[in-house]
Amino acid sequence: MKRIAMAMLMCLLVTCGICLGQQQPAPTDNGVYLQNGTGWDKLYVASISGVKASGAAKVMFSYGIASARSVMLFRDATAPIKTASMRPIFLVIGSNGTAPRDIVIVRLQQKKDHRELSVGKANAYTGMKMEYSPADVTEVDVKDSKEGRLVTPRVDLTPGEYIIFAGSPSPLPNGYGGCDFSVVPSK
Predict the structure, then answer these.
(1) Which candidate, 95, 113, 63, 100, places its Cα nearest to that of 179?
(2) Which domain range does residue 165 map to?
(3) Whole-number Å distance between alpha carbons of 127 and 144
(4) Integer Cα distance of 158 and 56 in angstroms
(5) Residue 67 lies inside a defined structural domain of this protein
(6) How many domains does the chain have?
């Protein structure tokens, strides 16, 4: 009887490794993954739902001194994948052609029914400048491992909406898209 009970207990412990806090194996398919608890959530490329420019009237009435702003629009007010970790860990598989210095996390501005990413500004005197707002960019540490590239932000992320560019980043709509995620306050 003891042997049967012990065998059942061992079988339960093996099939329920999560109960013991064991890490699930790392994924092997190409993509970007976010570590949540003991598993990995796959992030998908966030499609750009539109591009908008604002500030044309300011430019016109200031004789070109003021700047017009360009933003990319992303569907929905929040990303489908959420984490409570202020320093999430990402696993990037299959983007080894991208220099580690080009991997960044950028904060999105959350609106009622969408999110926005500021990608540039232009005026008559300084011309056009396409870049992410430096205040929205979070630098990351990248470590190559046998599973892929482990990416972590260098500072804690505040609750909000973010996008990680783990390929060849470009602020242009036809460039590589990033993978969106939300950082939510822990309960």
Answers:
(1) 95
(2) 26-50+72-116+128-183
(3) 39
(4) 32
(5) no
(6) 1
143 occurs within a structural domain = yes
Whole-angstrom CA distances from 21 to 24, 45, 66, 142, 168 are 9, 30, 55, 25, 35
Distance CA(10)–CA(81), nearest Å, equals 34
CA 107 from chain center: how many Å? 8
Rounded (to 5) percent helix, strand, coil in the chain:
15, 40, 40
DSSP conformation class of 159: S
Q: What is the Cα gyration radius of the chain?
A: 21
Q: How many CB atoms lie within 10 A of CB 133?
A: 15
pTM: 0.77
Amino acid in the structure at residue 65: I
Does residue 34 fall inside a structural domain?
A: yes
What is the residue-level pLDDT of the chain in tens, covering all 187 positions?
Answer: 444 434 333 433 333 444 445 667 889 899 999 999 889 999 999 988 888 877 666 655 666 666 677 888 999 999 999 999 999 999 999 876 778 888 999 999 999 999 999 887 766 667 666 778 889 999 999 999 888 999 999 999 999 999 999 875 444 444 457 999 999 988 7
For tokens 């061992």, name the residue.
Answer: 10
Instruction: Quote the CA–CA distance of 159 and 164 in Å, as a whole number.
Output: 15
